[in-house]
């Protein structure tokens, strides 16, 4: 019995290829959230502003574009994400969750074109996490 590729690492039946990266940061949820929405250049791109209303468009200086799907303050933002040169939209969700030791910050991207794009995006979101962590360190004076 064969499966239709859903068993491949990073591939799901419904959302296609996907990637998730997360890290627990030693800061309160409100602090991490304020960097996510207040300084989206760390993860969304320079000059990007996260819309407040579902369906509103956003764009960064590098030409990456998208549309807000949902925004729950202090919890998560879900939006479409299409860099220049891509022929398809993907969906990105960034979420925060309080833990006993700080906040888990998660990036999840789905509807990727295949394993190569998935690997590139893994590196992209890992770098975004690192930029956010550096911003938090600088703001708290622990850098």
Q: What does this protein structure show overall?
A:
- With 143 residues, this protein is an alpha+beta fold.
- It has two helices and seven strands; from the N terminus they run E-E-H-E-E-E-E-E-H.
- The protein has a seven-stranded antiparallel sheet, with helices on one face.
- The chain has one domain (15-140): Alpha-D-Glucose-1,6-Bisphosphate, Chain A, domain 4 (2-Layer Sandwich).
Which helices and strands, and how do they pair?
Blueprint: E1 11-12, E2 16-25, H1 29-38, E3 57-59, E4 65-72, E5 76-81, E6 90-99, E7 102-112, H2 115-140
Antiparallel strand pairs: 1-2, 2-7, 3-4, 4-5, 5-6, 6-7
Question: Could you list some keywords that capture this structure?
Answer:
143 residues; globular; single chain; 2 helices; 7-stranded antiparallel sheet; 7 strands; Alpha-D-Glucose-1,6-Bisphosphate, Chain A, domain 4; alpha+beta; disordered N terminus
Radius of gyration over all CA atoms, rounded: 16 Å
Write the CATH homologous superfamily: START domain
CATH topology: Alpha-D-Glucose-1,6-Bisphosphate, Chain A, domain 4
Main sheet makeup: 7 strands, antiparallel
Number of domains: 1
Strand order of the largest sheet: 1-2-7-6-5-4-3
Name the shape in a single word.
Answer: globular
What's the rounded overall pLDDT mean?
91
Q: Helicity level, as a percent range?
A: 25-40%
Number of helices: 2
CATH architectural category: 2-Layer Sandwich
H/E series, N to C?
EEHEEEEEH
Q: Strand tally, please?
A: 7
* Uncertain residue ranges: 1-6
From the N-terminal CA to the C-terminal CA, the straight-line distance is: 54 Å
Question: Which class do the helix and strand fractions yield?
Answer: alpha+beta
- Strand proportion, as a percent range, falls in 25-35%
């Amino acid at each position: 019995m064969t499966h239709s590729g859903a068993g491949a690492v990073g591939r799901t039946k419904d959302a296609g290829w996907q990637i998730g990266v997360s890290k627990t940061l030693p800061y309160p949820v409100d602090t991490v959230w304020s960097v996510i929405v207040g300084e989206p250049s760390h993860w969304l791109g320079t000059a990007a502003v996260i819309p407040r209303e579902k369906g509103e468009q956003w764009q960064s200086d590098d030409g990456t574009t998208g549309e807000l799907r949902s925004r729950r303050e202090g919890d998560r933002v879900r939006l479409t994400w299409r860099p220049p040169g891509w022929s398809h939209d993907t969906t990105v969700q960034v979420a925060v969750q309080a833990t006993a030791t700080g906040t888990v910050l998660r990036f999840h991207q789905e509807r990727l074109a295949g394993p190569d794009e998935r690997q590139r995006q893994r590196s992209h979101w890992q770098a975004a996490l690192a930029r956010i962590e550096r911003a938090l360190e600088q703001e708290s004076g622990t850098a």
